[in-house]
Design goal:
By secondary structure, this protein is α+β, with helices and mostly antiparallel strands. The chain has one domain: Cytidine Deaminase, domain 2 (3-Layer(aba) Sandwich). About 30% of the residues lie in helices and about 20% in strands. It is built from five helices and five strands. A five-stranded mixed sheet has the order 2-1-3-4-5. About 35% of the residues are buried. Bound molecules: tetrahydrodeoxyuridine.
């Protein structure tokens, strides 16, 4: 599964976005260690603070299916004017299940994708040692 293909799946996930308040659709596609892919999308609520981001909805779906390790994530934001990286909360949650070198690909259109790693997006992770103890 290459980054472009994973991004296409994230883009597909935006079709199910529930974003009646922001009108900002987000899709996420999470590649698991075993090659399976789980999709997520943002789910808003009239109590705005209860909104769930696409990335975390993908994580919850994968974890509920018994997956524990992700090797890459793609995020599509077709309503944005430029690439939009994952929010701080999502970086933290993704890092729980990804090694620092795992790929994060994001973009508002497939011709302009940013490719980075979760470690680069969450540098000097203060709780890294704690995470290692979960094994
Ligand atoms: N959103 C995500 O789904 N992921 C992000 O990383 C950034 C923001 C959603 C939340 C809300 O539904 C909309 O985008 C606008 O903030």
């Amino acid at each position: 599964m290459d980054a472009q293909a994973l991004y296409e799946m994230a883009l597909q996930a935006t079709e199910n976005s529930y974003a009646p308040y922001s009108h900002f659709r987000v899709g996420a596609a999470l590649l698991c260690e075993d090659g399976s892919v789980f999709l997520g999308t943002n789910v808003e609520n009239r109590s705005y603070g209860l909104t769930i981001c696409a990335e975390r909805s993908a994580v919850v779906s994968a974890i509920a299916a018994g997956k524990r390790r992700f090797t890459a994530v793609a995020i599509a934001t077709p309503d944005a004017e430029g690439p939009v990286g994952p929010c701080g909360a999502c970086r933290q949650v993704l890092s729980e299940f990804m090694e620092g070198g795992s790929l994060v690909v994001f973009g508002h259109r497939k011709e302009e994708l940013i490719t980075t790693t979760i470690g680069a997006l969450l540098p000097q992770d203060s709780l890294h040692e704690l995470r290692e103890k979960r094994k």
